[in-house]
Amino acid sequence: MATGLKACFARKYFYLDDMSWFFRIYFQPAEATRTRPCHGSGPAWIAVCLLILSATLAPGATLPDPVPLKVACVGDSITQGSGLSDPVNLSYPGKLSKLMGTQYQVRNFGVSGTTLLKKGDMPYWKQSAFASSTNFHPDIVIIKLGSNDSKPQNWRYGTNYVQDYLDLIAVYTNLPSHPRLFLCTPCPVYKTGAFSINPGIVSTNIAPAVRGLCELTGHSLIDVHEAMSGHPEWFPDTVHPNAAGTSVLAALVCRHLMGLTDSPAELPQIQGIAAPSNRLNLAWPLSGITFVLESAPAFKSTNTVWSVVDRPIVNRGDALVATNLAPGALRFYQLRRY
Q1: In this predicted structure, what is the pLDDT of residue 323?
Q2: pLDDT > 90? residue 65
Q3: Does position 104 have pLDDT exceeding 50, yes or no?
Q4: Which structural domain range is residue 129 located in?
């Protein structure tokens, strides 16, 4: 605990003496968990590798840093970050990059208005970002296309959607880097939609088609539509997620990329750390990488109103950190999985 902070360990409360901060660490009920078996003799294998390396490395030599895995985020305006004040950092690829850490190189290839359909009014196929995404030689490709395909002028070619998607899959799987593919269902569309995007077609035609494609091809599914349903507060224009929504989306994608679909064996504990200018940083273990940070202005026994913290979460290698939380009003914080 940083200097000037006094921990009161009665239950899960912390009181920050010098900063007039008080926050409660609160967790949702734990989901059912399963313990994954360990295969092979890991420690012995590691020891043998270290012995070989020590014999082959020159005295004083160090191992080079591992080459980051390349992650290509392919999509439309939601991937690009339309409507956000800082798309580079607040889009889901921008947040995913900070969340995944230095072992991953995340690149945003989203283009606003694009369709997966080749006969759509703005096919992704014809965009320079498409060529750039293949020239990137990614190790992982996240495809999130389909919202604009629901527009009337595009869905007239809806019978081609599955085949066009299979063709797109083939382009990426045949790259020399042989990337692993993750197919995302579109975000839910609220009310009657906007920009001529049809919520009914998205939910009853396109999202099921993506799920079926994953079953057909064996590629991994990220069911964004299901995970982000019931939260219109994340979609102020009914279509595009705000900065809170992209925090949830980045955590969801991260969970699938890292294969952490099960809940951790132990719930992560948040620690408050004093920062310059009377600010506060929050830190928690890497085991909580699939959780989303939420805050509330007041805590009640029932009906506490929690909102997702919209700033990026940074992976510092040994912990996850939310930085530069402003001082002032009383705030409560919790971690939650969506």
Answers
A1: 84
A2: no
A3: yes
A4: 69-257
Tokens describing residue 129 = 């970002």
Considering the domain architecture, whether residues 177 and 75 belong to the same structural domain is answered as yes
Q: Would residue 199 count as lying in a domain?
A: yes
Single out the residue in 229, 257, 285 at which a domain terminates. 257
Would residue 119 count as lying in a domain?
Answer: yes
Same domain, 85 and 124: yes
Q: Is residue 103 part of a domain?
A: yes
Instruction: Check residues 241 and 276 and name the one with the higher pLDDT.
Output: 241
Same domain, 138 and 185: yes
The answer to whether residues 250 and 206 belong to one domain is: yes
The enclosing domain of 109 has a CATH number of: 3.40.50.1110
**In a shared domain, residues 252 and 276:** no
Pull the structure tokens for residue 276: 């310059």
CB-CB contact of 288 with 334 (8 Å): no
Q: What SS3 string covers the chain?
A: CCCCCECCCCCCEEEEHHHCEEEEEEECCCCCCCCCCCCCCHHHHHHHHHHHHHHHCCCCCCCCCCCCEEEEEEECHHHHCCCCCCHHHHCHHHHHHHHHCCCEEEEEEECCCCECCCCCCCEHHHCHHHHHHHHCCCCEEEEECCCHHHCHHHHCCHHHHHHHHHHHHHHHHCCCCCCEEEEECCCCCCCCCCCCCCHHHHHHHHHHHHHHHHHHHCCEEECHHHHCCCCHHHCCCCCCCCHHHHHHHHHHHHHHHCCCCCCCCCCCCCEEEEECCCEEEEEECHHHCCCEEEEECCCCCCCCCCEECCCCCEECCCCEEEEEECCCCCCEEEEECC
Phi and psi for 70 in degrees, rounded to 5?
-90, 125
pLDDT tens profile 142-184: 999 999 999 999 999 999 999 999 999 999 999 999 999 999 9
Give CA–CA dist 172/139, Å, rounded.
10
Q: What is the pTM of this model?
A: 0.80
